[in-house]
TrEMBL record:
Organism placement in taxonomy: Bacteria, Bacillati, Actinomycetota, Actinomycetes, Micrococcales
InterPro entries on file: NAD(P)-bd_dom_sf
Domain of life: Bacteria
Protein name as it appears in the record: Gfo/Idh/MocA-like oxidoreductase N-terminal domain-containing protein
Length: 48
């Protein structure tokens, strides 16, 4: 990987991290715990 390629990769990773953080915050503002949004398999049954 070239130096510029590494810099681009780092920028993409940082950008994705920020987007993920904003997405999680949006879910929290809707009252949805982030862990439910991230892993639906752990979501308790709504009719339980």
């Amino acid at each position: 990987m070239t130096l510029s390629g590494a810099a681009t990769h780092a920028a993409v990773v940082v950008g994705a991290g920020r987007m993920g953080q904003a997405h999680a915050t949006a879910w929290e503002s809707l009252g949805v715990p982030v862990r439910w949004a991230v892993s639906p398999r752990r979501r308790p049954a709504l009719d339980a």
